């Protein structure tokens, strides 16, 4: 793993980083790593549904007939 040292970071940015890390119960280093990776690394572009469709695209579903359960649901009581 590579390391990087960031000099002359604005005090406001440092405070914001520390505050975010505290809020997430994580280290400032791990939050900074996540910020850098999410902003610099390319996104796969595929959402969950697209990934699931790709995963099952080669599945042989011949003879499988799934019916939706149309039974009314019971609303939950949050009292």
UniProtKB/TrEMBL annotation:
SUPFAM superfamilies, sorted: Ribbon-helix-helix (SSF47598)
Query: Which Pfam families does this UniProt record tie to the protein?
Result: FitA-like_RHH (PF22513)
The uppermost taxa in this organism's lineage are: Bacteria, Pseudomonadati, Pseudomonadota, Alphaproteobacteria, Rhodobacterales
Family annotation (InterPro entries): Arc_rbn_hlx_hlx, FitA-like_RHH, Ribbon_hlx_hlx
This chain belongs to the protein called Antitoxin FitA-like ribbon-helix-helix domain-containing protein
Q: Which GO terms describe its biological process?
A: regulation of DNA-templated transcription
Which organism was this protein described from? Neptunicoccus cionae
What residues does the Antitoxin FitA-like ribbon-helix-helix domain cover?
3-39
């Amino acid at each position: 793993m590579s390391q990087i040292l960031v000099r002359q970071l604005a005090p406001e940015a440092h405070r914001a980083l520390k505050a975010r890390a505290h809020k997430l119960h994580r280290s400032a280093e791990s939050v900074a790593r996540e910020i850098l990776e999410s902003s610099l690394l390319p996104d796969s572009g595929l959402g969950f549904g697209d990934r699931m469709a790709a995963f099952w695209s080669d599945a042989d579903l011949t003879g499988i007939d799934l019916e939706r359960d149309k039974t009314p649901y019971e609303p939950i009581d949050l009292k």
